Amino acid sequence: MSPNQKAVTIAIAVLLSTKPETRLSQLLKVCLAAKVDGDANTKAQELFQNTSNLAHWVQDIVGNDGQYTPDEWQALGEMDLLNNIEEFVAGLLSEVEAL
Fold this sequence. Notes:
By secondary structure, this protein is an all-alpha fold. The protein has helices at about 5-15, 25-35, 40-50, 55-60, 70-80, 85-95. The protein has one domain. It has 6 helices and no strands.
């Protein structure tokens, strides 16, 4: 199996293990809706290097292409980051560790 196939296998396993109502699912929806130019791997690493910066990270990836699509707005709305971002991050990290 090539390195790319291994990476895709891991990504599929994460997707199959993620229930739609979880915070991880909400984050993944934003990622699927966004179009990131450049090194997506580095962008993903930036999130987990500084999870307290989640709101700015999400804004950066969604606005990366200079456009906000209806799918991006919908995915952002489902994250509901305005109410309690610290709670969202704590839940997200817990879900990631439970994979």
